[in-house]
Amino acid sequence: MDGIDGKFIAQAAAYIGAAIAIAIGTMGPALGQGAIGKQACESLGKYPESAGKIQRAMILALGTVEASAVYALIIAFMLVRK
After folding, report:
1. Residue 1, domain member (yes or no)
2. Contacts 24+ apart (CB under 8 A), 22-31
3. Cα 35 to the chain's mean position, in Å?
4. Which of 45, 72, 74, 80 is 20 to 30 A from 2 (CA-CA)?
């Protein structure tokens, strides 16, 4: 390979790895957040008097699910940093 050194290949692999980490690492949380929102809306429709409890539980669950997407972002940044 003329003109292509190992550092260039390693950096390209890191960018590809970061892209895969973000793509896969955010797919699960996105589906989970959608399921949480769907269930919360159904519960609010059935039990409107429990709106406060449902909302608190939903926000806590969304925050927990979002943490895994943040971890994927951190891993992607660690792969790309120089």
Report:
1. no
2. 22/72, 22/73, 22/76, 24/72, 25/68, 25/69, 25/71, 25/72, 25/73, 25/75, 25/76, 26/69, 26/72, 28/68, 29/65, 29/66, 29/68, 29/69, 30/69
3. 14
4. 80
- Confidence band for 81, pLDDT divided at 50, 70 and 90: confident
- Residue 65 in 3-state DSSP? helix
Domain that holds residue 43: 9-80
Number of domains in the chain: 1
CATH number at residue 69: 1.20.20.10
Name the average pLDDT for the chain. 91
Q: pTM of the full predicted structure?
A: 0.76
